[in-house]
Design brief:
This protein is an alpha+beta fold. It has two domains: about 60 residues, no CATH class; about 90 residues, Sufe protein. Chain: A. The chain has a three-stranded antiparallel beta sheet with strand order 1-2-3. Strand 1 and strand 2 form a beta hairpin. About 15% of the residues are buried.
């Protein structure tokens, strides 16, 4: 009977370690405490020197033509899509609208609706160059569609 008890105890200890170990890599701010943080801090500390000429250029002239642009963002394996209309002023997104895929099942439509409702709060006021979304409102793939559409809009709106 003792080997059986030891096995349960070992299994319990392993399960506890598996649950707690991922938390050990974070400090109180939720930032990783591994050496990769310090190397990324070193890179960011050096990057102003390396990027300052392009930053000065970007400040002096707009990189994108102000206007309203529409693109279809495709995502997923089905594939699914959403159409996004983005308004840009001074290289900043000032408005975004989403049009859902017409032929859609109820589950996908629900994800698209929740994503479309949450999207403006995430992207309005953000630089068109820096904007990128991930999971919003539980929709894990719709962000890929938005990112695809923004890439197309960047290409279309870029000043030559």
């Amino acid at each position: 009977m003792k080997p059986h008890i030891v096995t349960r105890a070992a299994f319990g200890a392993a399960a506890s370690l598996a649950a707690v170990a991922p938390l050990a890599g974070c400090n109180s701010d939720g930032e990783p405490t591994t050496s990769s943080t310090s190397s990324s801090q070193d890179v960011s500390a050096q990057s102003p020197d390396m990027t300052s000429p392009s930053a000065e250029t970007a400040d002096s002239t707009a990189e994108y033509t102000d206007g309203t642009y529409t693109a279809r963002g495709v995502y997923g394996g089905a594939p699914s899509y959403m159409d996004f209309t983005v308004t840009i002023e001074d290289d900043v997104i000032t408005d975004v609208e989403s049009e859902l895929m017409e032929d859609n099942n109820d589950t996908s439509r629900g994800y698209q609706e929740r994503f479309a409702a949450a999207l403006p709060d995430e992207v309005v006021g953000e630089s068109i160059d820096d904007v990128e979304v991930g999971v919003l409102a539980g929709a894990s793939s719709c962000g890929d569609g938005f990112n695809d559409a923004v890439a197309q809009i960047r290409d279309e709106a870029r000043v030559d």
